[in-house]
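**User:**
Make up any protein.

**Assistant:**
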Amino acid sequence: MTRAFGLTWDYRCPYARIAHDHVVTGLLAGADWNVTFLPFSLGQSHVEPGMPPIWETPHLDSGIFALQVGVAARDTDAEKFLRFHHATFEYRHTRAGNLNDRERLAGFLSEAGFDADALLATVDAGGPLRTIADEHSRYAASHDVWGVPTFVVRDSAIFVRLLDPANGDAKTAIDTVNRILDNIDWPILNEFKHTSVPR
C-alpha cells in the first residue's frame, strides 16, 4: 500500500539534509511512497513581526535562491528533481557550499538532466518564489508548520530529527522512513525526545 506524506525542506538545515537523504535514497530504490516535497523558508520563519515577508526581500535571505531552483526543478520533472535535490543538500552540508552560487546550482541541474538555462529563467521570472510564498504560508496556517524537516501526514505535522543519513543504504533509508510513518500513525504518541544527543 502506497504511503503518502509531505516533507518540508530548506537546503540550509543539516537535519533536513539527513531526512531528505533517507527519503530520496528510498524513492530512488523504489519505495512505495507518494512524497510531496514542501518548500519552507527558514528565513521567513525568523522575520520579525511587522517586517516584510522574505518573498518581498529575497536578496536578504541566504537560502531562498536555492529553494526557488529546487521548486522549479520539482515542478518540471519529479524524478530529475530527486537527483538535483540530493546533490544540493550534499553540496551545502558536506562541502560548505554557497547556496547563492548560480553557476554551481546550474551544474547540478545539468547533471540531473535539466536544461539549466530554462529552469533558471523560470526562477528569474518569479514563479517559484510565488510558489514558495503560497506553500510555506499554507502549511504554516493549516498544520502549524514552523520548521524543517517536518513530515505532513493527513492532518498531522511532525518535526523529526535524525542523526545519521542513509549513506546510500536503501534498506536503512526505507526502514527508517517507514518507522517514522508508523510512529506518526500511532495515535497515542505525541512526543518522544531524548534529553541529550544519544551516544
User: Anything to note?
Assistant: The chain has a mean pLDDT of 97. The two ends are 35 Å apart (CA to CA).
